[in-house]
Structures are given as structure tokens and as C-alpha cells.
Specification:
The protein is about 40% helix and about 25% strand. The chain is an alpha+beta fold. The protein folds into two domains: about 5-145, Fructose-1,6-Bisphosphatase, subunit A, domain 1 (Fructose-1,6-Bisphosphatase, Chain A, domain 1, 2-Layer Sandwich), CATH 3.30.540.10; about 150-265, 3-Layer(aba) Sandwich (D-Maltodextrin-Binding Protein, domain 2). Strand 5 and strand 6 form a beta hairpin. Helix 4 crosses helix 8. The model has no long low-confidence stretch (mean pLDDT about 95). Bound molecules: adenosine-2'-monophosphate and calcium ion.
Length: about 270
């Protein structure tokens, strides 16, 4: 069983409340697929509604904490040492298409350090939580990163650049090298869930570029508390600044990092 702090209880309650709205709206999205206008505006509204619920719940429980949110941006708090980092709907494209792979992501920063993280898939009802020094849990059961040490036996997750972004060539160069060396590549569409799956040992490793802080804040502590390693794509700790992320157990984190680095070196 997980023993968690009152702050985590607050996060769990906020996520569950927002999830009820997302579950309802996800059901509606399936009906809207056939309408002329399509579900895009509806999804934007669902996203904003979920964020508002989380914002209100957390503000009530912890007055003064600051916020960094996907939709609402920065809200300065009177308490400068605490900040919530929130993505109310990570995996928006999946949600829009009726694919049940999306999540709510809530991270808590104290003095600039992530001390708690929650990633919740409202459809599978899988709640991933972690607090600094307390381990990582999936629905109250302890989780750990996978123990595999060979890329050839590993399932590696990634994210591809969105339409219109300039990184497609660079990304294809990386993907080519990775897929030549691993058992399988997966592309799920929610960075927060990708990290939660690494923490749970479902994915052996994961890399992606150009992510926002709210995509990864909660997932980073999940992986670390599950015994894994997380860095940016240069092996440094600047994930929230650079938007690059590389995660796995110690061995695969290093090996995948090497593959990505070599992918960009001209052959000699
Ligand atoms: P979203 O669903 O909240 O947009 C998919 O590979 C991941 O990238 C998702 O976590 C997705 O979050 C995120 N993502 C999509 N577009 C993005 C953007 N423009 N900036 C940062 N992250 C993005
Ligand atoms: Ca997101």
C-alpha cells in the first residue's frame, strides 16, 4: 500500500473530479465524430473545463500555491516556494479521435524541485503517483522500471513531431537507428502516460523532443521513484527547459542515449 502525504490526497481528489468530466466528454466525442463540424471545439472546451476543475480544487486545498498550466499559463501565488504544473488533458489528439489513451498530469514543485507527481488515465482508471523518497505506485501497488539490459529485448516508446514542426528529418534519423536495434517501437501520444509506463516497467525506455513542462513534470518523478533514470537529450537535467526527455533504467537510459547521439554523427 502507498502511504502518501495530504498534498498527494489533494492531487488525487482533484484528478478524480476532473476525470469524471473527461469520461463523460470522451463518450460524447465518439458521437461527434460524424458531425460536420467535428469534435475539435468540443475537445478544447473539455480540456479547459478539466483544467478549471483541477485549478479550483487545488486552489481551495492549498491557497497561495502558484500554477503553471497548459491552458491557463502562469498564475503567480503568494507562496513562492510551491507551484503546481498541470496538463488537464495530455494526449489531446487521441481524445479527439476517440482513442482511450490520454491522461491528467499534475506535478508539484517545491523550491524549484518536483516533489510529487500524478498521472491518471480516466478510461483505464489507472492512477500513477509518486512522491520524493516514497517510491512510485500504480493504483496503490508499488511499481518499478523494467530490468531489461539489452536494447534488442526492449520496447522503446517515442513521440513524433507534430505537423508543421521543423524536426521531422532529425527525428527520422533517430527513429531509423533506434528501430534497427530494439524489439519494438511504440508511439502512444501522451508523454505523461509514456513516462508512467516506463515507471511501471511496460516500456523499457522512452525519448521525445520539444515537450512542454506540463507534459513531463509528473512523469519525471514517477520514473525516478520507480528506480529509473531521466535526463534531457544531452544527458543533462534540463528537461523542463529544453523539452527533451530520455528515460529508462540506468543501463537502457545510457544505451538509448548513445544510439541517439550516434544517429547524428556522420559515418566515418
Ligand atoms: P497534448 O496532447 O497535451 O498536446 C505527444 O507526443 C505528446 O506531445 C503529448 O504529450 C502532447 O500533449 C505533446 N504535445 C503536442 N503538441 C505539443 C506542443 N506544441 N508543445 C508541447 N507538447 C506538445
Ligand atoms: Ca500535453
Amino acid at each position: 500500500m502507498s502511504r502518501h502525504t495530504p498534498s498527494m490526497s489533494v492531487m488525487v481528489a482533484a484528478a478524480r473530479k476532473a476525470a469524471r468530466g473527461l469520461q463523460r466528454d470522451f463518450g460524447e466525442v465518439e458521437n461527434l465524430q460524424v458531425s460536420l463540424k467535428g469534435p475539435a471545439n468540443f475537445v478544447t472546451a473539455a480540456d479547459k473545463k478539466a483544467e478549471k476543475v483541477i485549478f479550483q480544487e487545488l486552489s481551495k486545498a492549498r491557497p497561495g500555491y502558484g500554477f503553471l498550466m497548459e491552458e491557463g499559463g502562469v498564475v503567480e501565488g503568494a507562496d513562492k516556494s510551491h507551484r503546481w504544473i498541470i496538463d488537464p488533458l495530455d494526449g489531446t489528439t487521441n481524445f479527439l479521435h476517440g482513442i482511450p489513451m490520454f491522461s491528467i498530469s499534475i506535478g508539484l514543485e517545491r523550491e524549484g524541485q518536483i516533489v510529487a507527481g500524478l498521472v491518471y488515465n480516466p478510461i483505464s482508471d489507472e492512477m500513477f503517483i509518486a512522491e520524493k523518497g516514497q517510491g512510485a505506485f500504480l493504483n496503490d501497488r508499488r511499481i518499478r522500471v523494467a530490468a531489461r539490459r539489452e536494447l534488442a529485448q526492449s520496447v522503446v516508446a517515442c513521440g513524433t513531431p507534430d505537423l508543421g514542426r521543423p524536426e521531422h528529418e532529425r527525428y527520422l534519423t533517430e527513429l531509423r537507428q533506434v528501430m534497427l536495434q530494439v524489439a519494438g517501437v511504440r508511439r502512444m501520444g501522451s508523454a505523461a502516460l509514456d513516462l508512467a509506463y516506463v515507471a511501471a516497467g511496460r516500456f523499457d525506455a522512452y525519448w521525445e523532443a520539444n515537450l512542454a513542462p506540463w507534459d513531463v513534470a509528473a512523469g519525471i518523478i514517477l520514473v525516478r521513484e520507480a528506480g529509473g533514470f531521466v535526463s534531457d537529450l544531452s544527458g543533462r537535467e534540463d528537461m523542463l527547459k529544453t523539452g527533451g526527455i530520455l528515460a529508462g533504467n540506468e543501463t537502457l537510459h545510457r544505451q538509448l542515449g548513445d544510439v541517439l547521439k550516434k544517429a547524428h554523427k556522420p559515418a566515418v
